Please model this.
Amino acid sequence: MTVAPPASDRPAPGTPVTFRWRKWDGAPHWVHESVYLGRDEWGDWIGQQAGWRSARPGRDVVAESPNVTLVPAAGTYACTVNAAPARIRIYIDLAWDVRWSTTDADVIEGIDMDLDVVRALDDRGLYIDDRDEWEDHLAHYGYPAEVIAHLEPLALDLERRVGAHEPPFDDATADRWFARLSTLRPTR
Model:
């Protein structure tokens, strides 16, 4: 895991940034157009205003409502909190080596590990997404055993913390960053 660089290396709040995911085998995955919001004790926060774009090969998505994403310094997940009317409130992408790019100053990049903690606002409630497909993903992408040993207990711990509404997975923490996002003029 790569530890995040000092805060002095961060872009100024309001700077457009790109969050770029890849798969374990290096294939491109999601690319999110975002804006840097700042950092707190939990890590760095970026946001997407309504109308901002996310894309992956063969699929384009426009954010229908704002969202904010926490990228902790440990680089082990990215937690996105969606504003209403989204049906998913919290979506945590378990990850490997999420970090600021060493070549592009305004790019965050990491490996999406296909195991996600979700809190939906409908009857699905709280669950770990793709748990039933995890074995197939392990075989397809060839995740090393030490990665698996790290991710499986992390997913269970995050599921527990989200269910308990522990900070930073509580509404109060996210609402602070939604407030900052709302003060920024849309730039795209």
In short: Confidence is low (pLDDT under 50) at residues 1-5.
